[in-house]
Amino acid sequence: MAEPLFTADEQKKFDAGIAELLSHYPPDRKSAAMLPALRLLQTMHGWLPPEGMQQVATRLETTVARAYEVATFYVMFHTKKPGKYVIDVCTNLACALRGAEGMLKYLEDKLQAKAGENGEKYFLRETECLASCGTAPCLQVNEDHHENLTKAKVDALLEKLS
User: Fold this and answer.
1) Contact indicator for 141, 90 with CB cutoff of 8 Å
2) How many CA atoms lie within 13 A of 5 on its CB side?
3) Is 3.40.30.10 the CATH number for 85-161?
């Protein structure tokens, strides 16, 4: 038998969170709460497991396919369990002009992983834009932003994560 997605207390918290979200939407537009509902699930569980996607779809009166469509459209959602640290490196134009591609290669070498590979500790990804063009190059670790990167700053960051 499969392990339950949530403990009883976590399930109550999830249900209360979904109820709170739905209170902000008309009853006939429950599916409009998809993004915050998926965010709630991922915040509580660390990723979007199939059982959780089913719960979200049921509560929002939509299909699991619709939940997957939304979840797979946005890079912020994880439909597979990520490593402990998700490292997103911006390689958009402003960051690229200030050395982001070299920084990504440096991280790949340091972590001994290619961008897009998901390991137990690190999930390194190349991302399109982190909205820090004036402080490029930048990256984020589990949504914590780091700007004006240098190899020394990356080394210090990785040391903190060890």
Assistant:
1) no
2) 20
3) yes
